[in-house]
Amino acid sequence: xxxIITLCDSAIAEECPYWSGHPSTAHxxxxxxxxxxxxxxxxxxxxxxxxxLGLRNRIELLIDLPIESLNKxxxxxxxxxxHYHN
Length: 86
Fold this sequence. Notes:
The chain is 42% helix and 15% strand. The chain has one domain (3-84). A two-stranded parallel sheet has the order 1-2. The protein has 86 residues and is of the alpha+beta class. It has helices at residues 41-63, 72-84; strands at 3-8, 24-30. It has 2 helices and 2 strands; from the N terminus they run ββαα.
């Protein structure tokens, strides 16, 4: 495994299990859309859509990284930068 990326806002305080090979890690926090069950169906759908769009954007940025030309520290830095990219 090359990357471990946690997504749920509540996961940031949790300790991740050990993964052999020392993969690069990052936290791309999103509110858990399953907890957005307050409100009408449109509000709930909007919450899920916002998380989907955020994940799509970050995954596209990850795919576009020139992984072959980056060292481990640069990859780690880029994973963290992707979280804050708008």
